[in-house]
Amino acid sequence: MSLKTAIVMAAGKGTRMKSEMPKVLVEVGGRPMIDYVINSLKEGGIARIIVVVGFGGDLVREHLGARSGIEFAVQSEQLGTGHAVMSAQHLLTDLDAPVLVVAGDSPMMEARSIRALMDEYARRPAACVIGTTHKDDPTGLGRILRDESGGFVGIVEEKDATPEQRAITEINMSYYVFHCGDLLEALGKLRNDNVQGEYYITDCPGFLRAIRKEVRALPVLKPHEALGVNTCEDVRSVEEAMDRLAAPRGVEG
Length: 253
Known about the structure:
By secondary structure, the chain is an alpha/beta fold. It has a single domain (about 5-245), classed as Spore Coat Polysaccharide Biosynthesis Protein SpsA, Chain A (Alpha-Beta Complex). The protein has helices at about 35-45, 55-65, 80-85, 110-125, 165, 180-190, 205-210, 230-245, and strands spanning about 5-10, 25-30, 30, 50-55, 70-75, 100-105, 130-135, 145, 150-155, 170-180, 215-220. Strand 2 and strand 3 form a beta hairpin. Helix 6 (about 180-190) packs across helix 7 (about 205-210). The chain is globular.
């Protein structure tokens, strides 16, 4: 049986935090935020972790170099989340197993959510299973679109959403489990014909649905896991949330 595999997107620069180091090495609660992600993945049963590095990649490699089960892929240009995953696809050749894709700047990630998402995939495999949650204030986050029967239709970013869509409280959290073959097929179809000229992993579920493959969106995550870190203010907000929750933050390994 193949080891459970995850891809961690960790190539960005902490520009809005006025940091010269890679974003994932910015400290939250006294530790680089990627440590929380790696610990939660390991505690959640992920044995093989592919970290996609870019800006300051050598620093990320050095920081994680002593950790077991970690491999690296290089995103030479930061051309979007889809492009980040494309940079790791050579490490997925002939893998007939699920692949979890997450962001490296998610310090509130919890191992129990990883286990819940992987268990749901194992219970009923699909081309893609998306982890979601409901948030009272979803401002700034992508919304999950469903049809009348509750089936997944797509993901719409807030800037592109209609007023009715902005009223949706179910949000995309950038937690995806793809069957590896379906992920590779979807990556091959990604286009960057958008204002930013970037490739988005959020387009992959929609492509798979369009070719009649099963895509499910499951609200198995916790609302506080949606707290991301893009600014110094976000760091403080996450630290305050950590203090409130006082939850164990994974294990070393």
